[in-house]
Design a protein that fits this description.
By secondary structure, the chain is mainly beta. It has one domain: Outer membrane protein transport protein (OMPP1/FadL/TodX) (Porin). Helices cover 8% and strands 56% of the residues.
């Protein structure tokens, strides 16, 4: 049975690699990334992971916060993903740090990102992020690159926000020769805080040589200590859902993402804020 299990993992790994859209942080995004970034364009529910979608959203975070997320892609430990984010507000803007790791010792991908977001008055904000991406394969060595993204955010009303992000706009490539180039990715998002309990958002994403993808998400605060989220990502035909419970300054979410062919990806999200 062991060879059959290894074969299954290899085939799944290859299918994930070939079917994943090119992401905005690491070579592979978490399958459940829609869940972690669903509130990027919310004026009331943004958290430590929101700046992954739009760095300008950092300007709206006024308290120090942090988060960690992990998932076992399609229930396989060898396809695990781990992400961490920290946000530190200052008087002149807010800084964000993010780290991602995907894979296993034989093959893995990692990313480090340093972001900054600053308000331009009450209605607008801008942001920038610098990333270091690395991939390592046993027997083949490793490769890395540095790239960046820029973003902007506008609060059209007290409830409606819109923003744009350009990732890797200059087309950085892998290795010394840079022959394998990462494509540029452009995204536009809208977020609507329908009430103090409900937020809905949508994002359109276009990568070079890839079809347009649409991400839609909803965040609902059922009670003071209880939230639920749900949404879909058209590029991977995946649906996500989950819920969280707030315990003082800590929120614990259990998530699930369903792919129509590859199955279930469970995840766990922890969010911390220095103030409730």
């Amino acid at each position: 049975m062991q060879p059959l299990l290894m074969l299954k993992e290899t085939l799944l790994f290859a299918s994930v690699f070939l079917s994943q859209p090119v992401p905005a942080q690491a070579v592979h995004l978490p399958v459940g990334s829609g869940y972690t970034k669903a509130t990027a364009y919310s004026q009331q529910f943004s958290d430590a992971f929101s700046f992954s979608v739009n760095q300008a959203s950092l300007a709206g975070i006024k308290t120090a916060s942090a988060g960690v997320y992990s998932e076992h892609r399609f229930l396989l430990k060898s396809l695990s993903q781990y992400s961490a984010a920290v946000v530190l507000p200052t008087n002149s803007g807010a800084f964000g740090f993010k780290a991602d790791y995907f894979g296993q010792p034989a093959y893995n991908e990692s990313a480090l990102g340093l972001a900054y977001g600053r308000s331009l008055g009450d209605k607008a904000a801008v942001g920038v992020q610098f990333n270091y991406l690395a991939t390592k394969a046993s027997g083949y060595g490793h490769a890395g690159l540095v790239n960046f993204s820029v973003s902007g955010l506008v609060h059209l009303t007290s409830q409606l926000s819109a923003g744009m992000q350009a990732y890797n706009p200059v087309g950085a490539g892998w290795g010394k020769e840079g022959l394998e180039r990462l494509p540029a990715i452009y995204s536009f998002g809208l977020g609507y805080d329908a009430s103090p309990q409900v937020f809905v958002g949508a994002e359109v994403e276009k990568a070079e040589n890839q079809p347009v993808g649409v991400n839609i998400g909803m965040h609902y605060r059922v009670a003071e200590k209880l939230v639920v989220r749900a949404g879909m990502q058209s590029a991977t035909a995946a649906y996500y859902f989950g819920g969280g419970v707030r315990l003082n300054r800590l929120r614990v979410d259990a998530t699930a993402t369903l792919h129509p062919y590859l199955g279930l990806t469970p995840g766990l999200l922890l969010l911390y804020s220095s103030k409730e």
